[in-house]
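Usage

Read records sequentially. Each one opens with the input sequence:
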Amino acid sequence: MTAVHDSSVHDPAVLASPYQRSVADYWNAERNPVNLRLGEVDGIYHHHYGVGDVDRSVLQSPPEVREAQVIRELHRLECAQTDLLLDHLGVLGPADRVMDAGCGRGGSSLVAASRFGCQVDGISISQAQVDFATEQARLRGVSDQVRFHLRNMLGTGFPAGAFQGIWNNESTMYVELGALFAEHARLLRRGGRYVCITGCYNDAYGLPSRAVSQINAHYICDIHPRSTYFKEMAAHRLVPVGVVDLTAATIPYWRLRAESSLATGIESTFLDAYTGGSFQYLLIAADRV
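and closes with the structure output:
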């Protein structure tokens, strides 16, 4: 379904640094079952974690159906996370255009289009992700409504004021926040809404904990402190209208995933970071003023 891409070939207009090229290479090569198997439940492929109470009875399912039931429950939790993010985008309709910054395999973009009837542009620096997501839109017959692009979220090339809504779903840790919010502020029309769900390290804890550093190394990312989000939003005309601490809500997802066949080994690190207080999972919604 996805093409094979030569990681030695990069578009300098999209990938501006060796780090960005390394991130693109990582996601071009990524075939993690925890992303693919969950998406196979209903054809909506997400690249993020989940929230909400877990139906732990799936762990007591008969052996022949246990894995399928656990996968279905994990997918339900990640879908609930997407729904929560979209709940905070405000009122949208067919006349509106929104952008999924760091769209992964396109799940959130497709859900937004179905829910609001709006035009959606998803962007990623991974050609493999763009190709995969484009195929999903084609299969659903929504290619004229949902489009995916190989673009850099720090310099998208879209015209100023083109969007009523923009979101980052667990993708802000791959970029410098000042540059990101400057571009989002340029793209959003006045009164437009920005929403992110992200892991951030807790300033009150001090410097990043060992667990946070391990997460950074695992995903070749750079988790930002909580305070930087609000400082850079204020500097770029993004005024928070809602902040939700989802830390407690995401822990059940990680506990279930740790007991699943899809565990990758990073689950205990996330649980240590969340329960130890060094790491937080936040939703932030802000208006462009």
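Summary fields computed downstream for this record:
- The chain has ten helices and seven strands.
- The mean pLDDT is 95.
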